[in-house]
Predict the 3D structure of the following.
Amino acid sequence: MKRGHVTAIVLAAGTGRRMQSDVPKQYMDLDGKPVLYYSLKSFEKSSVDDIILVTSQNDISYCRENIVEQYGLCKVKCIVAGGTERYWSVRNGLQAATDAKYVLIHDGARPCLSIEVIERSIIEVIKCGACTAAVPAKDTIKLVDDQLYGVSTPPRNRLWQIQTPQSFVYNDIIEAYSRMEKEESTDITDDTMIMERYMNVKTKLIQGDYCNIKITTPEDLLVAKVLLKRV
């Protein structure tokens, strides 16, 4: 029995203001290659059928010539322009994924993505329809008030840190985005929120990888260089 077409949507349209650099974080040098290269390469080597890369309009030619073509990333089906917010970039990627039965949505600023996490995501999204990579929280987490006083301490064994890829049945996630567009929500931080809010669908958390960090601040590049040797 065929599993259905699986598309990876890799997001690389952000500006990375916290990196204190004129170069967007997804293009910064990481061990001799752009940060974005590494997650694309992991998807290239995985069993996904194709990849849609979402970047800013001005960076499409750069990505095609200096990343996709230079490194022979044959599974990149197309490069599309992103939107002003992350969720609009996802929406644009989804609109280009017309062949997909399942989609894996990944932040291009997470270069240390292992093939094992990708394959686990594919298996689980076929089983349950919506899943996200995640890892158990190691630290105690505090809820705070507006003055930053702690008001409660959730039990740590119930807290997980959400990562990407986040994986969904294509028809479900594209419908969720269609419903979201009508309300123009502004507080969306990831795609599991969209599924919860607009489709009333719970997302299963599957084991991610502590190495699968997001490049957000300059020191993250130093950490990622070490972690790449482990994935």
Summary: The two ends are 31 Å apart (CA to CA). Helices lie at 35-45, 60-69, 86-96, 115-128, 170-183, 191-199, 218-227. Residues 76 and 153 are 44 Å apart (CA to CA). The domain at 6-133+161-230 is CATH 3.90.550.10 (Spore Coat Polysaccharide Biosynthesis Protein SpsA; Chain A).
